[in-house]
Sequence to fold (244 residues):
Amino acid sequence: MEATVERQMGRIYKRGDPDMPEELSNAIVKVLTKHIENSTNPHFTKLLSYLWDRCMTLCPDEETKDQLALLMMQEVGHGVITWRILKDFGVNQVDVPVDKYQYAFNLPIDTWCDLCYFQALTDRVGTYVGENWGDVPYEPMRAVAPQLHSEELFHCNLGYKNLVKHCKTPEGLAEANELIHKWWPAALDMFGRSGSKSSEVYLKWGIQKKGNAELREQYIKDTRPLLEKIGIKVPDDNANRRFQ
Fold:
């Protein structure tokens, strides 16, 4: 708590500030270079194209397509926001594949239920890490934090709403209970290793609200009841995990 108060009461650095601490600028460049949402990153472009195809192909009704189109437009916008911040640090182009902890972005989305999980679970991770930068002492990141957080909430809430509707039929619920074993461990692994040294630096500068392990536990506490409420049997939190 004291560290958080210290950051909030301390200096907020503006774009191009020569007094900006090197550790802070290096941390920002590191986390945003690895961040898949970057409009200059060909891997992000490929992911967007795949997701657009999945949204329009798998969506079961026309009304939902309209909402998915808005979601995809916002994802494009997130990529541009990341590019704008990085270019001020001299990074105009990135070509970085999906981080090993973010392998959820490489999982196949074969069914509508897959897409519901992708948005309900992986986009929900974005509300805990990566796009919740209200405490970062760098003005351009603080300025976009409310927008990014609000839009990620829209994405995960839309995914959850669609998942709830899908689970109202016995067939849909059965599929959801099968696919949860694919998406739950992948979502939990998105938080990275519990003892990450990078996480300590991100925590110090407000890029993360809590350490990886604490964020993951909070995510589990918040998300598991939402899934169990609609009849999904969530597996053990350590089952099929690639990273701890």
User: Anything to note?
Assistant: The two ends are 25 Å apart (CA to CA). Residues 139-166 form the longest helix (28 residues).
